[in-house]
Amino acid sequence: IEYGDLACPACREASTTTIPEAIDQIVKPGDAKLVFRPIAFISRSSERGALGAEAAGMQDAMWSFVELIYRNQGPESDQDWLTDDLMTQAVEQLGLDVDQWTADYMGQESEEKFLATESQAQEDEVGVTPTFLIRGPNGEKTVTGAVEVSELQDAVAEVGPQT
């Protein structure tokens, strides 16, 4: 599980380095699956991004949406860089149903998912983003930051089944 904030520069860095390598080296071989949970730590853009990601997820496009927003991430000092217009442009670029995304983004289900994720992040003691929570039959390991993929591989090996 990756907890990430769409306004977080370290999360953006992880999305361009750690995540692609993790997908190639851990997910594709079947050693683990990767789930993204959008949370809001930094600014108003963080919350809008999390709600937008949840709405995109309702069209099975959360990862695509998150990656596109990260590629267009504004400065951390600008709390309002992620506007509804910028997200709508991303949704259009991804070829999603814009009207449906807008309804979902403004709807109760996205907000409920966002609040549930925020609550789960508190329960999982997430204090920074990105936070990777690796769970397996042999326990749980937390890795934080835009780390090398080897750290995630080591965590998966530690909590995964012994072969």
What does this 3D model show about the protein?
α3 crosses α7. This protein has helices spanning 9-16, 18-27, 44-57, 62-71, 84-93, 98-106, 108-123, 149-159, and strands at 2-4, 36-38, 131-136, 139-144. β3 (131-136) and β4 (139-144) form a beta hairpin. The chain is built from 8 helices and 4 strands, in the order βααβαααααββα.
Short description:
With 163 residues, the chain is of the alpha+beta class.
Give the secondary structure arrangement, pairings included.
Layout: E1 2-4, H1 9-16, H2 18-27, E2 36-38, H3 44-57, H4 62-71, H5 84-93, H6 98-106, H7 108-123, E3 131-136, E4 139-144, H8 149-159
Parallel strand pairs: 1-2
Antiparallel strand pairs: 1-3, 3-4
Helix pairs in contact: 2-8, 3-4, 3-6, 3-7
Mean pLDDT: 95
Helix content: 40-55%
Low-confidence stretches: none
The counted number of beta strands is 4
**Helix-strand category:** alpha+beta
Overall shape: it is globular
Give me the oligomer status: single chain
Total count of helical runs of at least 4 residues: 8
Biggest β-sheet: count, sense, barrel? 4 strands, mixed
For the largest sheet, list the strands in their spatial order: 2-1-3-4
Jot down its keywords.
163 residues; alpha+beta; 8 helices
